[in-house]
Amino acid sequence: MSDTPLATIGTGAWRLAFALAFVHLVSSLDRHLLSLVLPLVKAELVLTDTQLGFLQGTAYVLPYAAAIVPAGMLVDRFDRSALILTALCVWTLGTAACALSQAYPQLVAARMLVGLGQAALVPAAVSLITDMFGPRRSGKPIAVFTSAATLGRGLALSGGGLLLAVILAARTPDWLQGLQPWRVLFLVSLAVNVAAIALFSVTRAPRRPHPPGAGGGKLKPVLVRHWASYLAYFGSAAVTILIIQVIAAWTPTILVRSFGASVAESGMIFGVIVVCVGPAGNLLGGAVLDRLAARGVVVAPAGVAAVSLLMAVAAGSAFCLAGSLGAAAGALAGATFTLGMATPASLVAIQQLTPSPLRGRMTGAFLLGVTLIALGIGPVLVGWLADHVFGGAAGLRRAVLAVLWTTGVPGVISAVVAGWLARSHRP
Asked: Which of 104, 92, 411 lies closest to 240 in space, CA to CA?
């Protein structure tokens, strides 16, 4: 797996990287906007916390998981830009359907369409980025790509919260009469999707460095050789994304229930924190990965993942135990920053371990497992614990704290094991 020569990495590669990042930002907006309006959805449709958790996590992850491995196979064989554009159109329809759903089953079905559409994005985008920059210099561009998702999550909350406040205060146009404010918010947000479709329609990706489908029979030897490293990085990544999804799903509700914020205020508070510190964490993590790789440090992804995840668990615990809104906001900023640092590590490691013709399939399979655990279990588990185990005004915070520790410690151990394996397999 040779790197792309440094002289060939020009403005064209970075233009495509930023275009992919913008599409990733839109996908994150569509995925996380629901978290902002959970109290409004709960009130209109009369739902339990368990149902809300299923709607946020499981309803999204089931079609995502079912489609991501086939999507990875398509990535290795067909035009990756066309796949991304098609996926973007599909999940845009799902977002529009969320706004127009009149019952819980319809909303679940719309959420599933969003998950189905977004399955192809990350395998296709990471494959493109790694081919353009090379596996040993992909830390920064992959960090730019992942930071866009963090930024999108923050904008969904802060921008969405501000827009929701405007919608609540303004007179609704005649054609939107009869729609609840959260539904109007979803429809207005589609303007960003239209912009992304227009941008990516004129974006051209470079030719593959190998014929489509080349090396299709070589996956088994790669898995046999690196199975332990894949498994260790999988454990670390699954925990990192699970904690991110738990915090993203339940923080606005915690701010409302425990600190008296309104729905719009909770979104703006959390959103500003995510926008200000989340992408910075992503970019710092990517820069550290590339700097350490340039120095020949083979444990770079594992080390960044272990240290960042350990700090994130500590900061997340402080958020759950905070006694004031200010303390909660400070701890939340720390957790968001350190989780941002951890996010690129495992993706970079998987690209380094996997030959170019197999990256779509391997990334898809890797993300399948991560997503099943992180999105399918995390949010709904917190909701179930809050409903059935802890209860009370602080029950939701206690549920998040329990999930942080029971998953965070094994995640750190997995990253340490990945580092040990990388060191022991060094030539």
From this structure: 411
